[in-house]
Every structure is written in C-alpha cells, then in structure tokens.
Amino acid sequence: MTTVNPATLFSSPVRAIWNVQGENVPTLWWPAKGQLPSSKDANEGESHHTVLFMLPGNPGLIDYYIPFLQTVHDSCQGKIDIFGASHLGHSAGSHITDPARLYTLEEQVENKIAILDRLRETYPVGTRFIIAGHSMGSWLALRVLKARPNHGILRIFGLFPTIHRIADTPNGRKMKSLFNPTSLSIVGGVVSTLGFIFSAPSVLRSIVRLATGQDRDMAEVTSQKLLHSSVVKNCLFLAGEEMEAIKLMDRELIDEHASKMVFYYGKTDEWSPIENYYEMRDQFPKVKSYLCNQGMVHAFVLGHGEAMGEILAEWINEL
Fold first, then answer.
1. For 207-244, how does the pLDDT look when each residue is reduced to its tens digit (9 = 90+)?
2. C-alpha–C-alpha distance, residues 204 and 202, integer Å
C-alpha cells in the first residue's frame, strides 16, 4: 500500500498532541514533500532530511507562528520538514492535566531538549536540524545546542533574540512588577472574568481586535487560546523566571559554535535593544548578525510573519 504524504494534501500544518516525558505538548508539523521520514533504510552518514524546529517566545503558543512558518515552508518549496511546539502550560484544553501548575524555565528547557531527542529518533540518521528561536526562544535554542552539540544541529537562528540582560531592557524595567505572585493572581482573575462576561467567541475576538489591532487570525489565537487564567499565569510566571535567569550571555557557547549562528535584531526593539546587535557584531565577528531594515517589531508574528518567513527561508535555501 502506498503511503500518502500529507504535504501533498494540505497547505496547513498537521496538528498533534505529543506526550513528551509525561507532558502533553501541542505541536504543528509541516511535512516535506516526498518520502515520509523513515529510519528503516537510512545509511549511516546520509543526509535525507532537513528539519526546522521552531521555539516560540513568550507567550509560547505555536499557533501565533502559523503564517510565519507556512511562508517558510512555501518559500522552501516544501523541501524541509517544519516542526513547532508550544511551551508547557501555554495552552488550554483537554490535554492539560493540571491547570494550576506553573512550569519553570528549566522545565521548558528540558522539554525542548526531549522534543529534539524524539525528532532525532523519528528521522533517519544524517538528518540535519535547524533550530529557530524567537525572543526567549533564542535562549532556549542555545540551551538545546549546549545540551545536544552532536545531534546534527546545522544552524541556530535567533530572531529578535533575548539571550542576556532581559531585566535591564526598557521593557524589562517597565514590566518587572507584573511578574510577582500578587500580580499573577490579579491578572488571572481578570482574565477569568473577561472569559465569563464575553463567553461568545466572536464577541471576545472582536474586543481583542479592537484593543490590540491584531488581524482576525491572530485575534482568534489570543481570544481563544491565550486568554485563559492558567495560560496567562504561566506566561507571566515564565517571564519572571526569565528576568532572574537570563542575565549573562553564554559567550563560550557562542564562540565555540559561532559558524552555526545567525541573529536578527530590530532597530526599535525594547526587549532586545539595538545595542545588543552592535555587541554581537563587534564581539563575535564569526556570527552572522543582521539588523532589520523593514521596520519589524519584536512580536513580528503580529503583522510581519510572512516577511520574516521569507527572510528565514532565504537563509535556509542557501544552506
């Protein structure tokens, strides 16, 4: 019986819940066109596949990245597999077993390492892995590389990266007060109340669009997937941990793997100021550092997903 490749049937990702070390993780998969991954006939050293593993920022809902990743897949002509995963606790639904649980930054790190291990087991020997991280996802990408330096990681792409001194950034200083336990309870209560008052999905989506200026698809993600008390609490809790943990740049790691790294900075980014670009460019000349000239903001997925997707695809196509 011939196996049908989903990439020839769908122009949208395949959704699945992966159980990774006992945790249920929402995932998206864009299969490469051609032969489906199989380790049965792989020869040692052959490079059969290239897989892009996307690590979101915070909020860590992979659904925000659909237009961006769809553009990457289309612009790469379906030659690569793309896999993305939400952060633990950053989604709501029947897959959540303990809505009250708050996941630490280190638990997010270990989960992403475990997902890469699963991907490596799924694909043939010799598969090349590309890890793209957005915002704090760039820091996660570095941690994954540090833990698995021999897992075939070809490139690390850091998009608007927050890999050091987050608490000292303009936004870090302004928003730090939101990340204490009292604020978590207050914000969680407000979100629950909003969800109760505006229970009709279309009404809540309209309010989100009016308040944020998000387009319909992004407002749908925000209103239906983000605005849950447990999700918002996890986002804020994780942000608080980022403030405390992401302080010093791992210079030794970056220097050791400089040839694998590409960082893309914004000119007006208040989570990763332009000074970070100059620091990376001057102190690590072997790293490819770029400064955005298209006016993209830190949260590029909200309005600039396709433009960023075209840039990332161009880099991937050059590999």
1. 666 667 888 888 888 888 888 889 989 999 999 999 99
2. 6
With 50 as the cut, is the pLDDT of residue 41 above it? no
CA 89 to chain centre: 14
- The rounded Cα 104 to chain-centroid distance in angstroms is 16
pLDDT band at 4, cuts 50/70/90? very low
Average pLDDT for the chain: 88
**How many Å apart are CA 312 and CA 71, to the nearest integer?**
9
- 166 in helix, strand or coil? helix
- Would you state the structure tokens that stand for residue 85, as one six-digit string? 């995963």
Tens digit of each residue's pLDDT (9 = 90 or more) over 238-263: 999 999 999 999 999 999 999 999 99
DSSP string, 191-254: HHHHHHHT-SHHHHHHHHHHHH---HHHHHHIIIII-SHHHHHHHHHHHHHHHHH--S--HHHH
d(CA 284, CA 286): 5
| E strands present in 241-312 | 261-265, 288-291
Facing residues of 84 across strands?
Answer: 28, 54
What's the angle, vertex CA 93, arms to CA 89 and CA 99, rounded to 5? 45
The angle subtended at Cα 210 by Cα 209 and Cα 215, nearest 5°, is: 30
HSE-CB for 199 with a 13 A CA cutoff: 2
What gap in Å lies between CA 266 and CA 278, rounded to an integer? Answer: 11
Please, which residues have CB within 8 angstroms of residue 86's CB and are 6 or more apart in sequence?
25, 26, 27, 56, 60, 61, 62, 63
Going along the chain from its start, the domains and CATH numbers come out as 6-166+244-317 (3.40.50.1820)
